[in-house]
Amino acid sequence: MLAARDTVGTTLTWIFYNLAQNPNIVSIIRNELSPIASNKVAAGVDAMVIFEPDETKSLVYLKAVLYETLRLYPPAPFERKTVAADDIMPSGHELGTGDTILISLHSMGRMEGLWGKDCLNYNPDRWLSEDGNKLKYVPSHKFLAFNSGPRICLGKDIAVMQMKTVIASTLWNFDVEVMEGQSIQAKPSCILEMKNGLMVKLKKRGM
Ligand code: HEM
Protein backbone atom coordinates (compact mmCIF):
# COMPACT_ATOMS: atom_id res chain seq x y z
CA MET A 1 0.00 0.00 0.00
CA LEU A 2 2.90 2.32 0.77
CA ALA A 3 4.47 1.56 -2.63
CA ALA A 4 1.35 2.02 -4.72
CA ARG A 5 -1.31 4.02 -2.89
CA ASP A 6 0.59 6.54 -0.76
CA THR A 7 3.05 7.49 -3.51
CA VAL A 8 0.30 8.18 -6.04
CA GLY A 9 -1.97 9.93 -3.51
CA THR A 10 0.84 12.17 -2.27
CA THR A 11 1.97 13.09 -5.79
CA LEU A 12 -1.58 14.04 -6.79
CA THR A 13 -1.83 16.38 -3.78
CA TRP A 14 1.37 18.19 -4.78
CA ILE A 15 0.28 18.34 -8.42
CA PHE A 16 -3.04 20.03 -7.65
CA TYR A 17 -1.27 22.42 -5.27
CA ASN A 18 1.29 23.37 -7.95
CA LEU A 19 -1.34 23.70 -10.66
CA ALA A 20 -3.43 26.02 -8.50
CA GLN A 21 -0.43 28.41 -8.46
CA ASN A 22 0.00 28.11 -12.24
CA PRO A 23 -3.30 28.70 -14.08
CA ASN A 24 -1.40 29.09 -17.38
CA ILE A 25 -0.21 25.49 -17.06
CA VAL A 26 -3.79 24.35 -16.40
CA SER A 27 -4.85 26.08 -19.65
CA ILE A 28 -2.13 24.26 -21.61
CA ILE A 29 -3.26 20.91 -20.16
CA ARG A 30 -6.88 21.68 -21.09
CA ASN A 31 -5.81 22.59 -24.64
CA GLU A 32 -4.03 19.26 -24.88
CA LEU A 33 -7.18 17.46 -23.63
CA SER A 34 -9.56 19.39 -25.85
CA PRO A 35 -9.28 17.25 -29.06
CA ILE A 36 -9.96 14.09 -27.01
CA ALA A 37 -12.83 15.66 -25.06
CA SER A 38 -14.49 16.94 -28.22
CA ASN A 39 -14.98 13.30 -29.32
CA LYS A 40 -16.61 12.37 -26.04
CA VAL A 41 -20.10 13.10 -24.88
CA ALA A 42 -20.94 13.70 -21.23
CA ALA A 43 -24.29 12.06 -20.63
CA GLY A 44 -26.72 14.39 -18.80
CA VAL A 45 -26.27 17.98 -17.63
CA ASP A 46 -24.09 17.24 -14.57
CA ALA A 47 -22.24 14.29 -16.05
CA MET A 48 -18.46 14.22 -16.16
CA VAL A 49 -16.14 13.66 -19.08
CA ILE A 50 -13.88 10.80 -18.04
CA PHE A 51 -10.56 10.17 -19.79
CA GLU A 52 -9.50 6.55 -20.26
CA PRO A 53 -5.88 5.37 -19.87
CA ASP A 54 -5.48 4.75 -23.63
CA GLU A 55 -6.59 8.30 -24.38
CA THR A 56 -4.07 9.95 -22.04
CA LYS A 57 -1.12 7.78 -23.16
CA SER A 58 0.04 10.19 -25.85
CA LEU A 59 -0.38 13.38 -23.79
CA VAL A 60 3.16 14.71 -23.64
CA TYR A 61 2.59 17.98 -21.80
CA LEU A 62 0.56 16.26 -19.08
CA LYS A 63 3.43 13.83 -18.54
CA ALA A 64 5.87 16.75 -18.34
CA VAL A 65 3.68 18.27 -15.59
CA LEU A 66 3.72 14.98 -13.74
CA TYR A 67 7.51 14.62 -13.97
CA GLU A 68 8.07 18.24 -12.96
CA THR A 69 6.03 17.62 -9.80
CA LEU A 70 7.93 14.41 -9.07
CA ARG A 71 11.23 16.28 -9.54
CA LEU A 72 10.39 18.87 -6.87
CA TYR A 73 8.21 16.67 -4.64
CA PRO A 74 9.41 13.05 -4.97
CA PRO A 75 7.00 11.00 -2.82
CA ALA A 76 9.88 8.72 -1.79
CA PRO A 77 12.27 11.54 -0.77
CA PHE A 78 15.21 9.33 0.22
CA GLU A 79 16.93 6.35 -1.32
CA ARG A 80 19.09 4.11 0.88
CA LYS A 81 21.89 1.90 -0.39
CA THR A 82 24.24 -0.41 1.50
CA VAL A 83 27.82 -0.70 0.25
CA ALA A 84 28.56 -4.28 -0.88
CA ALA A 85 32.36 -3.89 -1.10
CA ASP A 86 34.95 -1.22 -0.32
CA ASP A 87 35.02 1.35 -3.08
CA ILE A 88 35.87 4.94 -3.97
CA MET A 89 33.14 7.18 -5.38
CA PRO A 90 33.84 9.36 -8.47
CA SER A 91 33.80 12.27 -5.99
CA GLY A 92 36.75 10.72 -4.14
CA HIS A 93 34.71 9.68 -1.08
CA GLU A 94 35.87 6.36 0.36
CA LEU A 95 33.23 3.77 1.16
CA GLY A 96 33.56 0.73 3.40
CA THR A 97 31.66 -2.55 3.16
CA GLY A 98 28.36 -2.26 5.06
CA ASP A 99 28.31 1.55 5.03
CA THR A 100 24.92 3.11 4.37
CA ILE A 101 24.50 5.79 1.72
CA LEU A 102 21.48 8.03 1.94
CA ILE A 103 20.57 9.88 -1.24
CA SER A 104 18.16 12.79 -0.88
CA LEU A 105 15.96 12.78 -3.99
CA HIS A 106 14.32 15.91 -2.66
CA SER A 107 17.66 17.76 -2.75
CA MET A 108 18.70 16.26 -6.09
CA GLY A 109 15.56 17.66 -7.70
CA ARG A 110 16.55 21.14 -6.52
CA MET A 111 20.24 21.15 -7.46
CA GLU A 112 21.37 23.87 -9.86
CA GLY A 113 24.17 21.62 -11.12
CA LEU A 114 21.59 19.09 -12.33
CA TRP A 115 18.62 21.22 -13.39
CA GLY A 116 20.04 24.66 -14.12
CA LYS A 117 19.55 28.13 -12.70
CA ASP A 118 15.75 27.84 -12.62
CA CYS A 119 15.93 24.58 -10.63
CA LEU A 120 13.50 25.90 -8.00
CA ASN A 121 10.89 27.01 -10.54
CA TYR A 122 7.94 24.81 -11.45
CA ASN A 123 8.46 24.60 -15.19
CA PRO A 124 7.14 21.54 -17.10
CA ASP A 125 8.71 22.90 -20.31
CA ARG A 126 12.12 21.72 -19.13
CA TRP A 127 10.98 18.15 -19.93
CA LEU A 128 9.95 18.88 -23.53
CA SER A 129 11.96 18.53 -26.73
CA GLU A 130 12.56 21.73 -28.71
CA ASP A 131 9.47 21.26 -30.88
CA GLY A 132 7.44 20.38 -27.76
CA ASN A 133 6.19 17.16 -29.35
CA LYS A 134 8.01 14.67 -27.17
CA LEU A 135 9.73 14.34 -23.83
CA LYS A 136 13.48 14.86 -23.60
CA TYR A 137 15.54 11.86 -22.51
CA VAL A 138 16.48 12.27 -18.86
CA PRO A 139 18.44 9.36 -17.35
CA SER A 140 16.90 7.69 -14.28
CA HIS A 141 20.08 8.33 -12.26
CA LYS A 142 19.40 12.06 -12.66
CA PHE A 143 15.63 11.88 -12.17
CA LEU A 144 15.53 9.32 -9.39
CA ALA A 145 11.87 9.58 -8.30
CA PHE A 146 11.21 5.99 -9.44
CA ASN A 147 14.71 4.80 -8.44
CA SER A 148 17.25 3.54 -10.95
CA GLY A 149 18.86 0.22 -11.85
CA PRO A 150 17.62 -3.27 -10.96
CA ARG A 151 15.34 -2.06 -8.13
CA ILE A 152 13.56 0.55 -10.24
CA CYS A 153 9.86 0.99 -9.39
CA LEU A 154 7.90 -1.88 -10.90
CA GLY A 155 4.70 0.16 -10.89
CA LYS A 156 6.05 3.19 -12.78
CA ASP A 157 3.89 2.80 -15.89
CA ILE A 158 0.76 2.01 -13.86
CA ALA A 159 1.42 5.01 -11.61
CA VAL A 160 1.89 7.38 -14.56
CA MET A 161 -1.25 6.04 -16.23
CA GLN A 162 -3.33 6.37 -13.04
CA MET A 163 -2.17 9.89 -12.31
CA LYS A 164 -2.66 11.10 -15.90
CA THR A 165 -6.26 9.90 -15.98
CA VAL A 166 -7.06 11.44 -12.58
CA ILE A 167 -5.49 14.82 -13.43
CA ALA A 168 -7.10 14.90 -16.88
CA SER A 169 -10.60 14.06 -15.63
CA THR A 170 -10.38 16.42 -12.64
CA LEU A 171 -9.05 19.41 -14.58
CA TRP A 172 -11.43 18.96 -17.48
CA ASN A 173 -14.51 18.83 -15.25
CA PHE A 174 -13.52 21.18 -12.41
CA ASP A 175 -11.71 24.36 -11.51
CA VAL A 176 -9.54 23.53 -8.50
CA GLU A 177 -9.09 26.39 -6.06
CA VAL A 178 -6.77 26.04 -3.06
CA MET A 179 -8.47 27.44 0.08
CA GLU A 180 -6.73 30.43 1.59
CA GLY A 181 -5.06 30.52 5.01
CA GLN A 182 -3.51 27.06 4.91
CA SER A 183 0.01 26.30 6.03
CA ILE A 184 1.50 24.23 3.21
CA GLN A 185 4.47 22.25 4.44
CA ALA A 186 6.10 18.98 3.53
CA LYS A 187 6.23 16.35 6.26
CA PRO A 188 9.59 14.62 6.06
CA SER A 189 9.03 10.91 6.52
CA CYS A 190 9.39 7.85 4.29
CA ILE A 191 6.66 9.45 2.11
CA LEU A 192 6.77 13.19 1.37
CA GLU A 193 3.24 13.95 2.51
CA MET A 194 1.73 17.38 2.92
CA LYS A 195 1.89 17.95 6.68
CA ASN A 196 -1.59 19.45 7.08
CA GLY A 197 -3.20 18.01 3.95
CA LEU A 198 -4.61 20.28 1.26
CA MET A 199 -8.07 21.80 1.28
CA VAL A 200 -9.43 22.77 -2.12
CA LYS A 201 -12.74 23.95 -3.53
CA LEU A 202 -13.92 22.19 -6.69
CA LYS A 203 -16.14 24.20 -8.98
CA LYS A 204 -17.84 22.39 -11.87
CA ARG A 205 -16.77 23.94 -15.16
CA GLY A 206 -19.39 25.05 -17.60
CA MET A 207 -18.68 23.43 -21.00
C1 HEM B 1 4.18 8.29 -7.95
C2 HEM B 1 4.19 6.98 -7.90
C3 HEM B 1 5.35 6.12 -7.49
C4 HEM B 1 6.64 6.47 -7.17
C5 HEM B 1 7.27 7.86 -7.19
C6 HEM B 1 7.34 5.25 -6.85
C7 HEM B 1 8.67 5.21 -6.47
C8 HEM B 1 9.34 4.04 -6.13
C9 HEM B 1 10.71 3.97 -5.65
C10 HEM B 1 11.63 5.17 -5.41
C11 HEM B 1 11.01 2.67 -5.46
C12 HEM B 1 12.34 2.09 -4.95
C13 HEM B 1 12.28 1.88 -3.45
C14 HEM B 1 13.61 1.36 -2.95
O1 HEM B 1 14.00 0.24 -3.31
O2 HEM B 1 14.29 2.08 -2.23
C15 HEM B 1 9.84 1.90 -5.81
C16 HEM B 1 9.77 0.52 -5.75
C17 HEM B 1 8.64 -0.21 -6.04
N1 HEM B 1 7.42 0.28 -6.49
FE1 HEM B 1 6.97 2.23 -6.82
N2 HEM B 1 6.48 4.20 -6.95
C18 HEM B 1 5.25 4.68 -7.35
C19 HEM B 1 4.10 3.94 -7.59
C20 HEM B 1 4.02 2.57 -7.58
C21 HEM B 1 2.84 1.80 -7.93
C22 HEM B 1 1.51 2.40 -8.38
C23 HEM B 1 3.17 0.49 -7.77
C24 HEM B 1 2.35 -0.74 -7.99
C25 HEM B 1 1.31 -0.82 -8.80
C26 HEM B 1 4.55 0.44 -7.33
C27 HEM B 1 5.24 -0.70 -7.07
C28 HEM B 1 6.56 -0.77 -6.66
C29 HEM B 1 7.26 -2.02 -6.31
C30 HEM B 1 6.68 -3.43 -6.35
C31 HEM B 1 8.56 -1.65 -5.94
C32 HEM B 1 9.70 -2.59 -5.49
C33 HEM B 1 10.57 -2.91 -6.68
C34 HEM B 1 11.78 -3.76 -6.28
O3 HEM B 1 12.36 -3.54 -5.22
O4 HEM B 1 12.15 -4.65 -7.05
N3 HEM B 1 5.04 1.72 -7.24
N4 HEM B 1 8.84 2.74 -6.22
Commentary on this structure:
The structure is a single chain. With 207 residues, the chain is α+β, with helices and mostly antiparallel strands. It has one domain: Cytochrome P450 (Cytochrome p450). It has 7 helices and 8 strands, in the order H-H-H-H-E-E-E-E-H-H-H-E-E-E-E. Helix 1 crosses helix 4 and helix 1 packs parallel to helix 7. It is 38% helix and 14% strand. Protoporphyrin IX containing FE binds next to helix 1 and helix 7. GO terms for molecular function: heme binding; iron ion binding; monooxygenase activity; oxidoreductase activity, acting on paired donors, with incorporation or reduction of molecular oxygen. Belongs to the cytochrome P450 family. Its cofactor is heme. Keywords: Heme, Iron, Membrane, Metal-binding, Monooxygenase, Oxidoreductase, Transmembrane, Transmembrane helix.
Topology:
Elements: H1 2-21, H2 23-37, H3 53-56, H4 60-72, E1 78-82, E2 87-88, E3 94-95, E4 100-104, H5 105-108, H6 112-115, H7 156-173, E5 174-178, E6 186-187, E7 193-194, E8 200-204
Antiparallel strand pairs: 1-4, 2-3, 5-8, 6-7
Helix pairs in contact: 1-4, 1-7
Bound molecules: protoporphyrin IX containing FE.
Keywords: Heme, Iron, Membrane, Metal-binding, Monooxygenase, Oxidoreductase, Transmembrane, Transmembrane helix
Family: Belongs to the cytochrome P450 family.
Cofactor: heme
